[in-house]
Design goal:
This protein has 439 residues and is of the alpha+beta class. 33% of the residues lie in helices and 24% in strands.
Length: 439
C-alpha cells in the first residue's frame, strides 16, 4: 500500500475541490449549509466513509464523520482529534469584486471567492487530511473526527450552540483543530514566515443602539430628531480613544518572537501604540475594538424618522469585563435616550499553551521551512472553538496556510482569495501534524 502522499496530485485535488466548494453559496443569512453538508458526505462516500447528519433546521444541517481508533484506551470521543470547520460564509457585495464571488475562479496563483480564506480552504485541507488517513491505510490509535458545522458566522444558534444543548458529548475531545490563526509572510515587518496557533480569542459583544423621537415633516426641523441623536452617539463612539493594553495572552506572542530572536524584546506600550496605528491586526490585538456595522433610519426623504438604529461589533480583549465595557460605553454616549441592546455575547476560557499540538506543529513546520516561527496567538475574531473550550476541551486555531497581510485582509471583504502555494504547504503541514497526533 502506498503510504507517501502524491503532493502534486493532492494540490490539484485541493484546488479543484475548493473551487467547487466556493460555488456552493452558503451565505449566512440564510445559510443553506445543508448543500455543503451533503456535498462533503458525497465526497467521503467515494472513499467508503459514512457519517451522520444533524438537522436543527432542514436547510441548516451539519455533518460529522469518524475514523475509529484502534486503541481501546484512546479511542472514543473524549480522546479524539477533531478537525472542525464551518460551512457558512458571510454575504458579499458582488459589484465590488474582480471575479464573481461564488464562481471559484482559479487565476494568477489564487483561488478566488467568498470563503476562500474563511474558512472553506481549511475545510478542504481538513477533508483531505481525513480522507488521506483512510486512503493510505495509516494506523491510528485515536479516533479522527471530521466536523463540518453550520451557522458559525451568525453565532452558532443552529450550529455549535445547538450541539452544546443537544449533543454535548460531541464537544469532548483530546484536541480540536479549527480556524483562528494562520501563516503570515509579513508579520510586523519580519523577514521570516510566522505561523500562529490561537489558544484563545477576543470576546464578541454585538450591540444594537436605538433612538426614538417624534416624527414630522422634513420642512419643519425640531430638536428631538431621533436620527440626529443617533448620529451624535455614533460620533462619540467613533472618536472614543480606548486605552492600549497588552493582555498576558497577547504578551506571550511577543515573548515567543523575542525568544526566537525575531525581535530584540517584547515592545513597550509606546512602541505598540506606534506600530498598531498603522497595522489594523496589531491594533485589534492590543485594544478593545468597536466597529460600526449597520445603520437604519427613515422611510422617506421628507419625513423625520420616528426610530433609528445601528449595530456595533465590539471585540474585547481577555480580561475585559463585558459589563464594565458596557458601562464605559454608556458613559461615552452620555445620552439616556439612546437605548443599548445586547444582541450577542460569547465568552470562553483560553486553552493551555502546553498541549502536545504546539511541539508537533513547531517540529513539522521547521521540517518544511527551517526559518519559520510558530507563536501562540489570540484570535481577534471569534470561532466555534469557544464552545468546546467552555466544556474543557482544548481547542486551537491552526490554519497553516501562508499568506500576505494584503491577502489576509480580504477575509469578510472584497476579492477574498487564497494562494495555491499556501494551500499545498498548509496541507502538508496539517497532514503531518494530525498524523502524529492520532498515532
Amino acid at each position: 500500500m502506498v503510504t507517501t502522499p502524491d503532493w502534486d496530485a493532492l494540490e490539484d485535488e485541493a484546488v479543484r475541490l475548493l473551487s467547487e466548494y466556493i460555488r456552493l453559496d452558503t451565505s449566512n443569512p440564510p445559510g443553506n449549509e445543508t448543500i455543503a453538508a451533503r456535498w462533503f458526505a458525497d465526497l467521503l462516500a467515494r472513499d467508503g466513509i459514512t457519517g451522520t447528519f444533524y438537522t436543527p433546521e432542514p436547510d441548516r444541517q451539519s455533518f460529522i464523520a469518524r475514523l475509529p481508533g484502534s486503541d481501546p484506551a484512546l479511542s472514543g470521543q473524549e480522546h479524539a482529534v477533531v478537525l472542525l470547520n464551518h460551512t457558512d460564509v458571510v454575504p458579499v457585495e458582488a459589484r465590488y469584486w474582480t471575479h464573481p464571488p461564488f464562481a471559484g475562479v482559479v487565476q494568477d496563483g489564487y483561488v478566488w471567492g467568498r470563503g476562500a480564506l474563511d474558512m472553506k480552504s481549511l475545510g478542504i485541507l481538513e477533508y483531505l487530511v481525513f480522507v488521506l488517513v483512510k486512503r493510505l491505510g495509516l494506523p491510528h490509535r485515536r479516533d479522527l473526527v471530521f466536523f463540518a458545522i453550520a451557522d458559525e458566522e451568525a453565532g452558532g444558534a443552529v450550529g455549535v450552540e445547538w450541539f452544546a444543548r443537544h449533543h454535548p458529548e460531541l464537544l469532548r475531545a483530546f484536541v480540536v483543530i479549527n480556524e483562528g490563526a494562520s501563516g503570515m509572510t509579513d508579520f510586523m515587518g519580519l523577514d521570516r514566515p510566522v505561523f500562529g496557533i490561537a489558544a484563545g480569542e477576543k470576546t464578541p459583544l454585538w450591540l444594537r443602539l436605538r433612538t426614538e423621537g417624534p416624527p414630522g415633516h422634513g420642512s419643519m426641523p425640531h430638536d428631538q430628531n431621533a436620527l440626529v441623536r443617533l448620529v451624535e452617539a455614533l460620533h462619540r463612539i467613533a472618536t472614543w480613544e480606548r486605552p492600549r493594553r497588552l493582555a498576558p495572552e497577547v504578551a506571550a506572542t511577543f515573548e515567543a518572537l523575542a525568544e526566537a530572536g525575531a525581535m530584540p524584546a517584547a515592545p513597550s506600550l509606546d512602541e505598540l501604540d506606534r506600530l498598531a496605528r498603522r497595522t489594523p491586526y496589531l491594533n485589534a490585538l492590543t485594544r478593545d475594538t468597536i466597529s460600526l456595522t449597520t445603520a437604519h433610519a427613515g422611510i422617506k426623504v421628507n419625513v423625520i424618522p420616528a426610530a433609528c438604529e445601528a449595530t456595533l461589533d465590539c471585540r474585547l480583549l481577555p480580561g475585559t469585563s463585558a459589563e464594565e465595557f458596557l458601562e464605559q460605553l454608556r458613559a461615552r454616549i452620555d445620552d439616556p435616550q439612546v437605548q443599548i441592546e445586547r444582541i450577542f455575547l460569547a465568552e470562553g476560557p483560553p486553552s493551555p499553551l502546553d498541549h502536545p499540538l504546539f511541539g508537533l506543529a513547531r517540529s513539522v513546520i521547521r521540517e518544511h521551512m527551517e526559518e519559520a516561527l510558530l507563536v501562540p496567538e489570540v484570535c481577534v475574531g471569534f470561532t466555534d472553538s469557544r464552545t468546546f473550550r467552555q466544556v474543557g476541551t482544548p481547542a486551537y486555531g491552526f490554519s497553516p496556510i501562508l499568506a500576505s497581510e494584503e491577502v489576509r485582509r480580504t477575509i469578510h471583504g472584497h476579492d477574498e482569495r487564497v494562494p495555491i502555494a499556501g494551500l499545498r504547504l498548509g496541507l502538508q503541514i496539517l497532514f503531518n501534524v494530525v498524523r502524529q497526533l492520532i498515532a
